[in-house]
Every structure is written in C-alpha cells, then in structure tokens.
Amino acid sequence: IFTFKYNKSMKAILQLKKLLIIPLLFFMGNIWGQTYVSNPDYGYYTDCSTTGFTTNVCGPFTYSGGSYLQLRTDYQNNGIIRFRVTMCGTYTFPTGGVLYIKESSNSNLTNLVCGTNNPSNGISLSGGATTQTYDYTPSFTTGTKYFNAVIVFSNSTTTFRIFSNVLSLTATNNQPDLRNINLSGPPPSVNQGQTINVSNQVQNIGSGNAGSSSVGYWISDNSILSSSDTFVGSTFTPSVSSGNTTSFLSNNVTIPSSLAPGNYYFFFKCDNDNVITESNETNNTDYFQFTVLAPTPPSLQVESCFATNSSAFNVGEIMNGSVAVRNTPSSQSWSGTITVFMKHTISGT
Q: Mind giving me the DSSP string for 244-296?
C-alpha cells in the first residue's frame, strides 16, 4: 500500500532535488540543443483532484477523476523525459489495467484523454503496484504539448477509465537571451551638443551562450525604437555565457546640436546589430526620458580694453591693443569678431 504524505522534510528533499536537477537540465541542453520546461516542475507531484466527466470526443466514455491518479515528470536526460504515474492515497493499480500517457496540443481534458497514446499499445500494469514510469522522447521542438495519464481496466460487465492531472511540456531552444541591467542614462535635462556618460551591464538570462555584440545608443521622440531614430553611438559587448553578466560598459555620447529642444527617449539596445539569435528578441531595449533644453543666448561683457604699446600716438603710428570678453557661464558658446571704436583727442598743430 502506497501512502504519500507531504511534510517539511519532503519539501526540503524536493527543493534539493529541484536545485540538483535544473542545472543538469541546462547542462544537458548545451549538449543536446533542446530543453523542455515541465509544469508542474520536474520532481513535483500535483495534488489529486476530485473530478469526473463524460466525453463523446472519442466515444461515449466516462472518466473517473484525478482523485485516483497522479502524473509527474521525474527528469530530462539526453532528450528523454521520464514520466512517473502514481496512484493516489492507498489505491493500487487494478489487475489487468493498461496505462496510456495521452498527448495533445489541446489542454481541454475532453480532448486530451482522446489524444495520442504513448506508447501506442499502452503499458500493462501489475495489479497491486502503485507506481509506473515511462520514458518519453518528444517529437516536437516548438510550442507546448499537454499530457495526462489514463488507465483503462475492465471487470466482467464494465470498462473503467481513470485519469490524472494535466501536465504540460514546453519546448525551449537552447539559446541565449540578452537584456540590459543597472543602467545609467542621461540626466533629466541636457543641452544641445552636450557630452554625457552612459553605462549599463548586459545579462544573459537564456540557456545558451552569447558571442560578442554591441550596445547601441539611440534617441527617439517616442517610446518605440525604430531604425529611423537617431543613432548616437555604441559600445562593444564581450561574449557572455548563460546565466552570467558583463562588467559595466561605459561610453561618452554627444547629444546632437541639431536636435530641436523638447522631450526625448534615450535608448539602450543590447545586441544592437542583431548578430545574436535569442530565445526572446523583444527584451533588448530600455530607455530614459530626458529633455533637450533650448540654447541660452550668449551674454557677452567687455572686461578690459587697452593699448599695449603706448598711451599716446603720432599720426600714422600703429597701435597695439588687447580686449578681454567674458561669456556668462552656462550660456551658449560664442565666437565672432570684436570691433573696436576709438574716441580720441588731437593735440598739437
């Protein structure tokens, strides 16, 4: 007789098992190139439910609910996933029963129990046993498939069918997934032509390694980055393995002098040139909002103006002079011509 009691010790064992299994899955994925996410997770049972239904999808069959049967995935290894079917409570497998792992792209039970049989002829069960495993090789490489266990058995007058919880497997390609973290963008307000320092890190949250790429910096007038927006620079990104993060990537960027005053979005885009094939291509951009200020006109003040070679001159003599001009701090830069006007007094004959 099999009794399943979930207590704190079992929880600790299951958590440890999870910690040990998941790194193994990703490691094997690096060799195999395809991994599958199980829901419920590998190594975990789901609670038995108490349901029942009749379906006419594949015949007028009546099914007794999951209060009798549990389905879980034990592990994934070299492309093979081990299913484990266990009777709930004190129930045991019926003598003469045949087990099928049903597979469908539809999670609805009335369709799922009529799905593909794994194995095609079922598994003959030993009466009185409580657990049966089945090694399944997935035939799909994209999307999600749904599974449940069905046991069919008969007595002299009636055929019975009992079913388990629904379990899903989702194919995930062994690919990197890059995103920006710890960003430092422009200050809230900047001037036209101002140079600012920006920085970020690139993290790989995917299951595959990523080669070298670059982080691009863009300025847009809206929150959606497009190729028509203003590109203002980039920084080299070294290769980053699965689960790891680059050191800080920093660069100086100049706000274009031609950018009209107004509100803008400053974008960071990792894998700027799209050289990395990722499992998720939609999480590469982040932005800061900032304002480009209208330029402050120059404010000029003559601080000094004097002749450098004499204080009195004869007619026809050349005067050398010096003029100092100050521009008010924070105003627009200025360059130009200084015109000197002379107020003079003529003495002599």
A: -B---EEEEEEPPTTSPSEEEEEEEEESTT--S--S-SS--EEEEEEEEEPPP
